[in-house]
């Protein structure tokens, strides 16, 4: 049952309905429960909100005690971007690994099992999958979150992912429209710009979104990127041409349009969150994501009051707000009534590890390779994590190598001079160098070159986008840094699957 804490007018309720805020802690704060009673229809969960599946289940039950149709959203892509398993690493490889296998049935099964686990914990809306075509190898924020660089491959796997997730009763959200793949700037920090013509956009960036919409994706997330060929004046999140003209009318998306987080610098640093929110709603967005960085009651009431004031001043047509709020409530009704499809029971629970093993690309050096039988020293080359991934999730094959080869030791290295430190620490032990997007970091590439010059027997594990050529006594490309990718890599190094 919904608990009404007060009786706000319809305009105020609608203004709350279009917000998707975050909050601190592993239980719902009192202010959030009050807002649910006043009209708030959605909440967003992040890693800080999750300690265990049992705790998450209790949290979502607490929310539903206030509003039984609440949308509980999460940014759970699997792979490098995981909230459900933020402290352990994901049980599922990310999109890039699935694209490397290129088996749409496998992608559908992985998405179904991930969705089943979310639904089991009471989460019913997933801000996934990323439908971005990773056409720029220097992209600092997409990378392994993309199925790949080929538009057709990304399109068919986006569709498969949507089908699998929604068969589990969890609404999908293809992102980041109209495509964040051809950028060298992270929109968490600044405004990216994509300077290509409309023919390139149509054939490359928009193809996966067409496929996701055709597959029935219930939501699309906008990107804070400037695409002058589509709108020279406004980023996509704030563009009527892009959200209403292109996404709604031309591509035929009838479901929810949700923004990427409005506190990201591309919006907040240019427009401010209040004005950005009003412009996004006016452009055609239905839900405003906020809460990755700003997660408090003050932010919610600031945005609520800004929306109400904009309607009263005529800056935001009331019918636009009413339409947006109804789309949010419509998605909430779908999630409340959704049931898992016929795939339930037919997807193995360890499908994630199966997919990670299939994604491996293992290249032996000229001398061939014999699996290690003694404990190695593992050097983790650690670049600065992008905000979407975060730095709290463990990665790499160390734990699994220690399981297969007891006595394994490791160290983490960053910047010039790493090679000498690693050689001194490793001594005579077998050496494993674990890199992440080596092609994007000159210091990392130089360090690996120096290691191989001194120790040609070094094993190289690439856990980012494998652009650099394979090298080392053994080169293992995992196409992502999820926990299961680390397990698969460890098995390749130590010779065969463990338990």
Task: Walk me through the structure.
With 499 residues, the chain is α/β, with parallel strands linked by helices. The chain is built from 18 helices and 14 strands. It has helices at residues 10-17, 30-38, 53-66, 95-101, 104-120, 151-167, 198-205, 207-214, 240-250, 265-268, 273-283, 297-313, 318-337, 351-359, 398-404, 418-426, 442-454, 483-494, and strands at 19-21, 42-45, 71-74, 125-126, 173-177, 219-222, 256-259, 288-290, 361-364, 377-381, 409-413, 431-435, 459-462, 474-477. Strands 9-14-13-12-10-11 form a six-stranded mixed β-sheet, sandwiched between helices. The chain has a three-stranded parallel β-sheet with strand order 2-3-4. A three-stranded parallel β-sheet has the order 5-6-7. α5 (104-120) packs parallel to α6 (151-167) and α15 packs parallel to α18 (483-494). The longest helix has 20 residues, at 318-337. 56% of the residues are buried.
For this entry, give a set of tags.
single chain; 499 residues; alpha/beta; six-stranded mixed beta sheet; three-stranded parallel beta sheet; disordered N terminus
